[in-house]
Specification:
Length: 248
Protein backbone atom coordinates (compact mmCIF):
# COMPACT_ATOMS: atom_id res chain seq x y z
CA UNK A 1 0.00 0.00 0.00
CA UNK A 2 2.86 2.36 0.85
CA UNK A 3 4.69 3.49 -2.25
CA UNK A 4 8.38 4.20 -1.83
CA UNK A 5 10.29 6.17 -4.44
CA UNK A 6 13.81 4.85 -4.64
CA UNK A 7 15.52 7.51 -6.78
CA UNK A 8 15.39 11.24 -7.47
CA UNK A 9 14.38 10.48 -11.04
CA UNK A 10 11.42 8.40 -9.89
CA UNK A 11 10.40 11.05 -7.38
CA UNK A 12 10.53 13.76 -10.02
CA UNK A 13 8.48 11.68 -12.45
CA UNK A 14 5.79 11.20 -9.79
CA UNK A 15 5.92 14.88 -8.85
CA UNK A 16 5.33 15.93 -12.45
CA UNK A 17 2.32 13.62 -12.61
CA UNK A 18 0.99 15.06 -9.37
CA UNK A 19 1.00 18.56 -10.84
CA UNK A 20 -2.36 17.55 -12.34
CA UNK A 21 -3.65 16.75 -8.84
CA UNK A 22 -5.41 19.83 -7.44
CA UNK A 23 -5.02 18.66 -3.85
CA UNK A 24 -1.26 18.23 -4.30
CA UNK A 25 -0.87 21.62 -5.96
CA UNK A 26 -2.65 23.51 -3.19
CA UNK A 27 -1.49 21.55 -0.14
CA UNK A 28 1.93 20.00 -0.78
CA UNK A 29 3.63 22.50 1.52
CA UNK A 30 1.14 21.93 4.34
CA UNK A 31 1.50 18.15 4.02
CA UNK A 32 5.30 18.41 3.96
CA UNK A 33 5.19 20.13 7.34
CA UNK A 34 3.59 17.09 9.01
CA UNK A 35 5.42 14.22 7.30
CA UNK A 36 8.09 12.18 9.10
CA UNK A 37 10.07 9.81 6.87
CA UNK A 38 7.94 9.66 3.71
CA UNK A 39 8.23 12.36 1.07
CA UNK A 40 5.18 14.37 0.05
CA UNK A 41 5.12 12.48 -3.25
CA UNK A 42 5.14 9.17 -1.38
CA UNK A 43 2.30 10.35 0.86
CA UNK A 44 0.09 11.32 -2.09
CA UNK A 45 0.93 8.18 -4.08
CA UNK A 46 0.22 6.01 -1.06
CA UNK A 47 -3.05 7.85 -0.44
CA UNK A 48 -4.04 7.09 -4.03
CA UNK A 49 -3.24 3.43 -3.42
CA UNK A 50 -5.28 3.33 -0.22
CA UNK A 51 -8.27 5.17 -1.71
CA UNK A 52 -8.24 2.90 -4.77
CA UNK A 53 -8.04 -0.21 -2.60
CA UNK A 54 -10.98 0.85 -0.44
CA UNK A 55 -13.07 1.79 -3.47
CA UNK A 56 -12.30 -1.29 -5.52
CA UNK A 57 -13.18 -3.56 -2.62
CA UNK A 58 -16.14 -1.55 -1.36
CA UNK A 59 -14.73 -1.32 2.16
CA UNK A 60 -17.03 1.09 3.99
CA UNK A 61 -17.55 -0.67 7.32
CA UNK A 62 -15.86 1.10 10.23
CA UNK A 63 -14.35 -2.07 11.70
CA UNK A 64 -12.95 -3.18 8.36
CA UNK A 65 -11.56 0.31 7.78
CA UNK A 66 -9.77 0.01 11.12
CA UNK A 67 -8.22 -3.27 10.02
CA UNK A 68 -7.00 -1.74 6.78
CA UNK A 69 -5.47 1.19 8.64
CA UNK A 70 -3.70 -1.17 11.03
CA UNK A 71 -2.18 -2.94 8.01
CA UNK A 72 -1.01 0.39 6.60
CA UNK A 73 0.51 1.36 9.96
CA UNK A 74 2.63 -1.79 9.96
CA UNK A 75 4.12 -0.77 6.60
CA UNK A 76 5.24 2.63 7.88
CA UNK A 77 8.71 3.26 9.24
CA UNK A 78 7.36 6.12 11.34
CA UNK A 79 3.77 6.15 12.61
CA UNK A 80 3.66 9.94 12.34
CA UNK A 81 3.21 9.53 8.57
CA UNK A 82 -0.19 7.95 9.18
CA UNK A 83 -1.79 11.34 9.89
CA UNK A 84 -1.05 13.04 6.56
CA UNK A 85 -1.68 9.79 4.69
CA UNK A 86 -5.19 9.34 6.11
CA UNK A 87 -5.97 13.05 5.74
CA UNK A 88 -5.10 13.10 2.04
CA UNK A 89 -6.99 9.83 1.48
CA UNK A 90 -10.07 11.34 3.15
CA UNK A 91 -10.05 14.41 0.90
CA UNK A 92 -9.60 12.28 -2.21
CA UNK A 93 -12.63 10.19 -1.24
CA UNK A 94 -14.65 13.35 -0.61
CA UNK A 95 -13.77 14.57 -4.11
CA UNK A 96 -15.13 11.36 -5.61
CA UNK A 97 -18.41 11.15 -3.76
CA UNK A 98 -20.57 12.47 -6.61
CA UNK A 99 -19.03 10.24 -9.27
CA UNK A 100 -18.84 7.20 -6.98
CA UNK A 101 -21.43 7.35 -4.16
CA UNK A 102 -19.71 4.61 -2.15
CA UNK A 103 -16.79 7.03 -1.68
CA UNK A 104 -19.02 9.05 0.67
CA UNK A 105 -19.69 5.98 2.81
CA UNK A 106 -15.99 5.16 2.96
CA UNK A 107 -15.16 8.76 3.90
CA UNK A 108 -17.69 8.67 6.74
CA UNK A 109 -16.14 5.47 8.05
CA UNK A 110 -12.62 6.88 7.74
CA UNK A 111 -13.16 10.29 9.29
CA UNK A 112 -13.34 9.01 12.88
CA UNK A 113 -9.73 7.85 12.58
CA UNK A 114 -8.66 11.15 11.06
CA UNK A 115 -10.25 13.05 13.92
CA UNK A 116 -8.00 11.26 16.39
CA UNK A 117 -5.29 13.69 15.27
CA UNK A 118 -5.62 17.15 16.79
CA UNK A 119 -4.17 18.82 13.67
CA UNK A 120 -6.69 17.19 11.32
CA UNK A 121 -9.13 20.10 11.11
CA UNK A 122 -6.46 22.75 10.29
CA UNK A 123 -4.86 20.49 7.70
CA UNK A 124 -8.25 19.63 6.22
CA UNK A 125 -8.93 23.31 5.71
CA UNK A 126 -5.75 23.64 3.64
CA UNK A 127 -6.48 20.50 1.66
CA UNK A 128 -10.05 21.59 0.95
CA UNK A 129 -8.80 24.85 -0.58
CA UNK A 130 -8.39 22.82 -3.76
CA UNK A 131 -11.99 23.80 -4.55
CA UNK A 132 -10.77 27.36 -5.19
CA UNK A 133 -9.77 27.29 -8.86
CA UNK A 134 -7.80 30.54 -8.76
CA UNK A 135 -5.70 29.38 -5.81
CA UNK A 136 -5.07 26.05 -7.52
CA UNK A 137 -3.91 27.55 -10.80
CA UNK A 138 -1.69 30.10 -9.07
CA UNK A 139 -0.10 27.24 -7.17
CA UNK A 140 0.35 25.25 -10.39
CA UNK A 141 2.10 28.22 -12.05
CA UNK A 142 4.44 28.47 -9.05
CA UNK A 143 5.32 24.79 -9.42
CA UNK A 144 6.00 25.26 -13.13
CA UNK A 145 8.36 28.11 -12.31
CA UNK A 146 10.16 25.89 -9.79
CA UNK A 147 10.70 23.26 -12.48
CA UNK A 148 11.89 25.80 -15.06
CA UNK A 149 14.33 27.29 -12.58
CA UNK A 150 15.70 23.81 -11.85
CA UNK A 151 16.05 23.01 -15.57
CA UNK A 152 17.78 26.34 -16.15
CA UNK A 153 20.49 25.32 -13.69
CA UNK A 154 21.07 22.22 -15.84
CA UNK A 155 21.40 24.41 -18.91
CA UNK A 156 18.24 23.07 -20.53
CA UNK A 157 20.17 19.99 -21.64
CA UNK A 158 18.84 16.97 -23.54
CA UNK A 159 17.40 15.35 -20.41
CA UNK A 160 15.55 18.58 -19.67
CA UNK A 161 13.54 18.22 -22.86
CA UNK A 162 11.72 15.16 -21.52
CA UNK A 163 10.68 17.13 -18.45
CA UNK A 164 9.63 20.07 -20.60
CA UNK A 165 7.45 17.75 -22.69
CA UNK A 166 5.57 16.81 -19.51
CA UNK A 167 5.31 20.41 -18.36
CA UNK A 168 3.87 21.33 -21.76
CA UNK A 169 1.09 18.76 -21.37
CA UNK A 170 0.24 20.26 -17.98
CA UNK A 171 0.08 23.76 -19.45
CA UNK A 172 -2.14 22.72 -22.36
CA UNK A 173 -4.73 21.35 -19.90
CA UNK A 174 -5.06 24.73 -18.19
CA UNK A 175 -7.74 27.27 -18.94
CA UNK A 176 -6.71 29.81 -21.58
CA UNK A 177 -5.98 32.72 -19.18
CA UNK A 178 -3.67 30.47 -17.17
CA UNK A 179 -2.02 29.18 -20.33
CA UNK A 180 -1.19 32.77 -21.21
CA UNK A 181 0.41 33.25 -17.81
CA UNK A 182 2.43 30.08 -18.37
CA UNK A 183 3.40 31.32 -21.84
CA UNK A 184 4.85 34.50 -20.35
CA UNK A 185 6.74 32.41 -17.81
CA UNK A 186 8.20 30.13 -20.48
CA UNK A 187 9.05 33.18 -22.62
CA UNK A 188 10.93 34.74 -19.73
CA UNK A 189 13.17 31.70 -19.34
CA UNK A 190 13.44 31.30 -23.10
CA UNK A 191 14.64 34.88 -23.61
CA UNK A 192 17.24 34.61 -20.85
CA UNK A 193 18.63 31.32 -22.18
CA UNK A 194 19.26 32.05 -25.87
CA UNK A 195 15.82 30.78 -26.93
CA UNK A 196 16.63 27.25 -25.74
CA UNK A 197 12.94 26.43 -25.24
CA UNK A 198 11.46 28.39 -28.14
CA UNK A 199 9.47 25.43 -29.49
CA UNK A 200 7.60 25.13 -26.18
CA UNK A 201 6.75 28.82 -26.17
CA UNK A 202 5.50 28.49 -29.75
CA UNK A 203 3.33 25.46 -28.96
CA UNK A 204 1.69 27.17 -26.01
CA UNK A 205 1.08 30.33 -28.04
CA UNK A 206 -0.41 28.44 -30.98
CA UNK A 207 -2.73 26.55 -28.67
CA UNK A 208 -3.99 29.67 -26.90
CA UNK A 209 -4.51 31.49 -30.20
CA UNK A 210 -6.41 28.59 -31.74
CA UNK A 211 -8.64 28.12 -28.70
CA UNK A 212 -9.35 31.83 -28.53
CA UNK A 213 -10.23 32.02 -32.22
CA UNK A 214 -12.55 29.04 -31.95
CA UNK A 215 -14.01 30.38 -28.73
CA UNK A 216 -13.19 27.00 -27.29
CA UNK A 217 -12.44 27.58 -23.64
CA UNK A 218 -11.58 24.09 -22.26
CA UNK A 219 -12.50 23.10 -18.76
CA UNK A 220 -9.69 21.38 -16.92
CA UNK A 221 -10.62 17.90 -15.73
CA UNK A 222 -7.85 16.32 -13.72
CA UNK A 223 -7.60 12.56 -14.03
CA UNK A 224 -3.99 11.88 -13.05
CA UNK A 225 -2.76 10.72 -9.70
CA UNK A 226 -3.40 7.03 -9.19
CA UNK A 227 -7.02 6.79 -8.11
CA UNK A 228 -8.16 9.42 -10.66
CA UNK A 229 -9.87 11.37 -7.90
CA UNK A 230 -9.15 14.81 -9.31
CA UNK A 231 -11.69 17.29 -10.56
CA UNK A 232 -14.42 16.46 -8.05
CA UNK A 233 -16.03 18.48 -5.30
CA UNK A 234 -13.31 19.29 -2.77
CA UNK A 235 -15.61 20.91 -0.21
CA UNK A 236 -14.60 18.35 2.39
CA UNK A 237 -14.90 20.70 5.36
CA UNK A 238 -18.67 20.97 4.81
CA UNK A 239 -19.09 17.40 3.67
CA UNK A 240 -18.83 15.56 6.93
CA UNK A 241 -18.63 16.12 10.66
CA UNK A 242 -18.16 13.93 13.67
CA UNK A 243 -21.89 14.23 14.48
CA UNK A 244 -22.81 13.15 10.97
CA UNK A 245 -20.63 10.09 11.38
CA UNK A 246 -22.12 9.19 14.71
CA UNK A 247 -25.63 9.42 13.27
CA UNK A 248 -24.85 6.67 10.78
Amino acid sequence: MIRRLESKQEQRAVRLKLYSDDVYVIAHKAVKEVTATLSVEEIFSSADNLASHLLENGISDKDFIDMEIDDVREELDDERDLFPLLSVTFVKLCALRKAKPIAADIARALVHRCQEFEDFTPLLGKLANAENRRIVEKGRINLLEYELKTLEKDGFDKDSMMVLDKLLLIVLKMDIPDQKVAERLFSQYNDSNNHAIQKYVDKIRRNTEQCTQNQNMPTTINTNGGAAIMGGDFNATQFISHKQHESK
